[in-house]
Amino acid sequence: MPGHEDIRKFAVSYEDAWNSGDPERVAACYAPEGSIVINRGTPWQGRAKIAEMAAGFYADVNRMRVILDDLRIAGDHVAFIWTFTGDHSGTGNALNVRGWEEWDLSGDCLIQSSLGWFDAEDYAAQVAGR
Question: pLDDT tens across 97-110, in order?
Answer without folding.
Answer: 999 999 999 999 99
